[in-house]
Here is the input.
Amino acid sequence: MSRYKLPSCVFQDQSGNVVASGTCSVLLAGTSTAASIYAASSGGAAVNSVTSDSAGQCTFYVDTGDYEYSQLFDITLSKTDFTSKTFPNVVIFPALGSVLRLLSDTASGITALTDLSVEAIQTLFTVPTGKTCILSHAIVEVSGDAGASGVFTIGQGAGATDFVGTTNVDNLDADGDCILMMPVPSATPATLKAYAAGSVISLDVATGANAVTGSCYLFGFLY
Here is the structure.
């Protein structure tokens, strides 16, 4: 886990004067859910707001143990007798731009693949507001023999097949075995999709495997 510091944020009034002892409140972008933030780069309990110092500086950190790198934040500066101001969709984590990276990790609790014998669509990732996503590949890891019958797909919508179609999992034979899921390149380049903000990317257990647990690691980039 790592902590990342909010880029410079100075509380100023409408005349440009710094405001000391103002409140800097942080929400998850586009929601009313208070974010977990930290006053220091390590240690300490999570809080939902910090206070501006004598120079009007608001300083806090967010932790990768709490949120995905794709998480954006809404920051509101307020103080009695001052007009509050909100800054939406603030980027704090690095590599939110066009860098190939891990988008979601079901092992950390986003979506647990708790029983691969159950045929169900399970959400992996939702494209953040103001962003477009292009997927690269996914890695599925299992805790035991998945059997010979399982079929997985990945994509958006009810079918969840527009990124990777029918993929057999009969070579997942033991704890720690993994498969790579991606469009297969050939003489004719594979078609990828640009997923708009709000698109929900899911893994579909189209045909149940054995009753083992699994994890799915989805990779791509946002722009």
